[in-house]
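Please decode residue identities from the backbone states below.
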């Protein structure tokens, strides 16, 4: 199983960013993918999840309306798009496969930096 994420991103405040996570080595539609971020000096923060099988999503309330998860079953890739970026969105963003009550495989993480 592998989750491979796209490269680092630098954005200005107010902009949007869309990052990807390509899955391989398992049946893509059989597992949820969760998104988790970690800001400098902080712990992990769960953002939400997507069911690639039917596109169903669940967002942590603080991200509702500003974050969108999508999945492309033809390429086994999930995406997170974050709009209205603020400096406090500067974090490493991780995708992770959800297996029952745990996250068993993780992507390598993407550094997203929001700075003018």
């Amino acid at each position: 199983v592998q989750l491979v994420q796209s490269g680092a991103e630098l954005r200005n405040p107010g902009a949007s960013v869309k990052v990807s996570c390509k899955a391989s080595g398992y049946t893509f539609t059989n597992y949820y993918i969760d998104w988790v971020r970690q800001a400098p000096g902080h712990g992990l923060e769960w953002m939400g999840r997507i069911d690639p099988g039917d596109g169903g999503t669940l967002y942590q309330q603080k991200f509702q309306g500003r974050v969108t998860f999508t999945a492309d079953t033809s390429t086994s890739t999930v995406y997170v798009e974050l709009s209205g970026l603020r400096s406090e969105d500067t974090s490493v963003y991780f995708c992770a496969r959800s297996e029952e009550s745990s996250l068993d495989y993780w992507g390598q993480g993407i550094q997203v930096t929001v700075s003018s």
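Observation: The chain has a mean pLDDT of 96.
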